[in-house]
Amino acid sequence: MRQSALRGRIEAVLQLRPEDLGLSAGEDDERGLPGDRQFMESGWYRHMLCRYLLALEWASGKRVLDSCSGLGWGGFLVAGKARQVVGVDRDVEAVGFCRRRWTEENMEFVEGSVLALPFENESFDVVMCMEAIEHFSVEDGERYLAELRRVCRPGGVLVGSSAFPRNRGAADELCSKNEYHLHVYTRAEMRSVLHAFGTLLRLTPHYFAAEKH
Questions:
Q1: From CA 157, how far away is CA 58, in angstroms rounded?
Q2: I need a surface site. Which of 13, 104, 139, 191 has the fewest CB within 10 A?
Q3: Which residues contact 35 (CB under 8 A, 6 or more apart)?
Q4: Whole-prediction pTM value?
Q5: What DSSP string describes 120-186?
Q6: Whole-number pLDDT of residue 34
Q7: Dihedral sign computed on CA atoms, order 44, 11, 1, 156
């Protein structure tokens, strides 16, 4: 995808405002719209965009799963380079919004639980897990990642984002600041989880990637 085309998609995403679409906005909605005024003012929108720009590194010509796809704008960014992007979310209203808003031929949105993904084994080249793993208990988080591994093809890539503090105290403190966060992983914990998925490709304080064995 040419840089001009990517910029055009980013601009289209940033022009979306919750108030114009009849959507609510909140400080805890880190998967909301980057064009939300508070995210623009705080600079959080840059992180929101960057996590999907990172996915573009592996998405070219690939079939991509956007798990916990939310409002679908991240999948829209990746779809500019991917062969196909399939978003899955359990929120019926979010899926309905995505189907109305993102009508590109290579995009599809499915209602379903990421703990029991409605897809066949090894059916995606890239699986995305953006700002999602912290919303699950440890047990459900393991089940979630096991499902992502199941639907990922050998040699495929898991790529995602969250916050990974250096120690458990810092992770628990961060977790306590958001009632929707059930478990924030330390960097060491996430490293272990990713090794269980496959070969670790990248782990930073905010992003991760692993290749399936």
A1: 7
A2: 139
A3: 13, 14, 15, 16, 17, 45
A4: 0.94
A5: -TT-EEEEEEES-GGGS-HHHHHHHHHHHHHHEEEEEEEEEE----SSHHHHHHHHHT-TT---PPP
A6: 93
A7: positive
